[in-house]
Amino acid sequence: MKNTIGLSLPAYSFNKENTALIIGAGLAGCAVANALARRGFHCKLYDQHPTIAAATSALPAAVIRPLISHDQSHTSFYKKAFAMCCRDLPQHLFKQCGLLQLSKSGSTSNITDAQWMNASTASSQAGIRLDSDAWYVKQAGWIHPADVCAHWINHPTVEFSGNHHVSELRQTEYGWQLLATNAKVIDESPLVIVANASSILQFNVANHLPLQQIGGQVDRFNCDRHCPKTIISGDTYVIPDIDSTSGQVSLWTGATHHRSQAMASVNASDTHQNNQSAKRLVPALTLQTDAQASFAGLRTATPDRLPIVGALPHASTYRQQYCDLRHGKPADQYPPPVYHRGLYAAVGFGSRGATQASFVADLLGQLITGVCDEPIVLQMLHPARFLNRELRKGKVQPSN
Ligand SMILES: Cc1cc2nc3c(=O)[nH]c(=O)nc-3n(C[C@H](O)[C@H](O)[C@H](O)COP(=O)(O)OP(=O)(O)OC[C@H]3O[C@@H](n4cnc5c(N)ncnc54)[C@H](O)[C@@H]3O)c2cc1C
């Protein structure tokens, strides 16, 4: 990162004597519980739904892959996140069928983690005719997020409590209270991690975060004769899912995108769109038109498409402390940021939560315990980065 003024990490840390309270039991919250439990913390995971992975992480099939791009700014983050998935996800949960990303540009220059193939070699790899050259990622695959969440919280020091909607966070001398809608205290600890996707905006301490909801749908269609063996990705993707008893191949296809959507619900026009896009992506496919299953959900996206991970800054103090950022004062004239002590966020996973969650949770574990191997990545994902960028551009006043 070029300029890190205002993005220094908190100087304090927590030890395993503190119970970690985690709000949200999707991929993010379950991965954080796992990362902290492995560091010896007792973790209590709260969700408003009765079961884990009941919101966006109820997605039936999530692709895990690196970022195949010549733009180096995000690729190193994805490379590390993808490497951690390949290393840590159990084989029976990670279906590593490989992924072919179709290329329109025909560029054959080096891309980390991916092998260039012409259309004919790519077709042999896929087991179906492809009309474009492609990048092949042998280790890529897909997961069923709910199974991975269950695997992550299957630890003696992780407790899950469903049916708890946290409506407010209150700071006390001891730490943070999680309050229910009737203002009753659900629990209290000096260490709280908020992993509840865009609902983090309901808490005053985090309502400065620029999160956007993007709706989307995936559909599963039976595939009759010509079916791919690998995931095929382009503007859209198809994921082969083989029923182990009947041998029937079906394909998860998707996903649609609807900006600024408030609610997610399955609809027939998205099903039609997914069916048609899959056929455009792989014209040789023989796909039934009726969906066997469908899922609609809301992605929580950030403006730079990277998640928000780390200690939450005190926004109004931040705006005052750094109001001169655009004037280029020397770094040593700025104080370190003031944080809401003990309050951390892991949100904004967009369309790539499955690849990112375990790496991000590990980074948060490093930050919370003060043993940081990846300070530069943590600065890249810093919750204050958007305030910082606005101040640099002179877009906000200190009183905002
Ligand atoms: C159509 C579609 C396709 C996708 N495809 C892929 C893919 O192929 N690969 C991939 O990596 N990702 C994919 N994603 C994205 C992925 O699903 C998300 O990044 C991931 O599930 C986000 O996890 P999360 O834990 O942040 O959010 P969630 O799973 O939404 O978890 C947040 C949890 O917080 C709980 N909560 C919210 N507010 C409160 C509160 N006040 N009190 C208590 N609990 C609360 C919710 O009940 C929920 O369980 C896709 C998403 C969609 C919609």
Q: What does this entry look like structurally?
A:
This protein is an alpha+beta fold and 400 residues long. It has two domains: 20-57 and 147-211 and 303-392, FAD/NAD(P)-binding domain (3-Layer(bba) Sandwich), CATH 3.50.50; 94-142 and 212-300, D-Amino Acid Oxidase, subunit A, domain 2 (D-Amino Acid Oxidase, Chain A, domain 2). 24% of the residues lie in helices and 24% in strands. It contains nine helices and 20 strands. Strands 4, 5, 6, 13, 14, 15, 16, 17 and 18 form a nine-stranded mixed beta sheet that branches. Strands 8-2-1-12-20-19 form a six-stranded mixed beta sheet. A hairpin with a 5-residue loop joins strand 10 and strand 11 (185-189). Helix 1 runs parallel beside helix 4 (145-153), helix 1 (27-38) packs parallel to helix 7 (353-369) and helix 2 (72-88) crosses helix 7 (353-369). The protein is globular. 48% of the residues are buried. The model has no long low-confidence stretch (mean pLDDT 92). Bound molecules: flavin-adenine dinucleotide. Flavin-adenine dinucleotide binds next to helix 1, strand 3, strand 13, strand 18 and helix 7. Flavin-adenine dinucleotide (FAD) binds at residues 23-29, 46-49, 54-57, 59, 62-63, 145, 164-166, 195-197, 199, 216-218, 254-255, 297-299, 347, 349-355.
- The domain tally reads 2
Per DSSP E runs of 2 or more residues, the count of β-strands stands at: 20
Shape: globular
Count of discrete alpha- or pi-helical segments spanning 4 or more residues: 9
Radius of gyration: 22 Å
Which stretches are poorly predicted, pLDDT < 50 over at least 5 residues?
none
Gap between N and C termini: 26 Å
| Fourth-level CATH superfamily of the largest domain | FAD/NAD(P)-binding domain
CATH topology of the largest domain: FAD/NAD(P)-binding domain
